[in-house]
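Hi P.,

Sorry for the delay on this. The queue was packed all week, but I finally got your sequence through. Input first:
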Amino acid sequence: MAKTQPPSAAGEPLLPTASPPPYLDARAGADADAYVLLVPAVRLRRLRRGCRCLGPLLALLVLLCLAGFLLWPADPDVSVARLRLAHVSVSARPSVSVTISAALKVRIRNPDLFALDYSHLDVAIGYRGAHLGRVTSGGGRVRARAVSYIDADLSLDGIRVVEDAIYLLEDLARGSVPFDTVAEVEGHVHFFFLSIPVKGRISCVVHINPHNQTIVHQDCYPE
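Then the structure:
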């Protein structure tokens, strides 16, 4: 008897199936092709060094500005220490005129840290805005943060008053004639290698009684 083969299972392929494709990890390929870019820190270090140098420079600039503000020369303080009236008279004939003789002592205070060399002291006198005359004294030197006094003799002999003659006669009748006095000091302060001009000025309104040769009232204010 012949041997028979057992029937194959239904649907079983006659040839063996191909093996499944190998598994490839996508990340492995990505990691293999990835590059790491290292940025040099030279620029960052330069910026940090620049910031570190900029801070002291700014602080030095602020200190220099503050020192210049504190050391920069200021104008001298001028005040009238004494005003002594020697003679004053008002004449109505042949024309209205004024004669004044007075001694003025001016106080100059130098507030700076450097000596003050002033060229002159100028004292002007007027009546109701009209200029009558002036006197100028010589120069001098005031030490740093020191006080100096300057004497000036004011003398006006027969100065005619034309525009305000009526007001002058009215003030004479009241016994109080207001005179405007301006004292001005000009000089230089030597600030290291610089020569800086400075000026001090004070204005006074002096009411004088010509009848008894006295000063009724005096009001001064710096300018």
